[in-house]
Amino acid sequence: TQLLEQSPQFLSIQEGENLTVYCNSSSVFSSLQWYRQEPGEGPVLLVTVVTGGEVKKLKRLTFQFGDARKDSSLHITAAQPGDTGLYLCAGAPHTGGFKTIFGAGTRLFVKA
Amino acid sequence: DTGVSQNPRHKITKRGQNVTFRCDPISEHNRLYWYRQTLGQGPEFLTYFQNEAQLEKSRLLSDRFSAERPKGSFSTLEIQRTEQGDSAMYLCASSRRDRSNYGYTFGSGTRLTVV
Fold it and tell me: Fewer Cβ atoms within 10 A, N terminus or C terminus of chain A?
């Protein structure tokens, strides 16, 4: 059972476009994290959202945690080729013990 | 802070051989995690340690897999009698116990190819 569903699975856009990727679940999470992963490397933590309805900004990236703490979104403004990568959401569901689970990711390709 | 270090970065082995991977976490992190990632998927949880105690193991961790963290510092993951289905990226991560809900620091992974 995939507890964290990410969409879309793949996104190819032109430099300068905006985009939003989604992370959805039927489970409640105490927090959700977003990571970015480049080929052949481990995931790198971008942000953690903790409070329902929370919005965090990291330069051109905006992260939102759903009010019910079951979903999250990542919005990128004016995408650049350096944003290319695999974006993973992750979290520890209340019913899942201590372990953090990951979604399958959204693979983003930004063309110059 | 030198980050999480994993060795080797790549390993090619023949089916049936044993392999061992090493992870050196961030020194002040008392929690250490192992994940496995296959192409097109997110990382899947395998096991985690708090100090030297192995607190949880996934059902993915068959009898051929064993992990240790003998002194609460570095950890090793051994796979015995490797199978082609074991080919994957093996990722190690660490965190402080009181910050474990705030995300992990991952190493660069060990890419295993079983031929």
Answer: N
3-state DSSP of chain B: CCCCEEECCEEEECCCCCEEEEEECCCCCCEEEEEEECCCCCCEEEEEEECCEEEEECCCCCCCEEEECCCCCCEEEEECCCCHHHCEEEEEEEECHHHHHHCCEECCCEEEEEC
Please check the confidence at residue B1 and state whether its pLDDT lies above 60. Answer: no
Q: Name chain B contacts of A50, Cβ cutoff 8 Å.
A: 101-102
Report chain B residues whose CB lies below 8 A from the CB of A45: 103-105
User: What was the pLDDT predicted at B8?
Assistant: 98
Interface of B to A at Cβ within 8 Å reads 4, 6, 33, 35, 40-45, 48, 55-56, 58, 91, 93, 100-109, 111
Q: What confidence tens digit (pLDDT) does each residue in B15-60 have?
A: 999 999 999 999 999 999 999 999 989 999 999 999 999 998 998 8
Per CB-CB distance under 8 Å, the chain A contacts of B48 are: 98-99
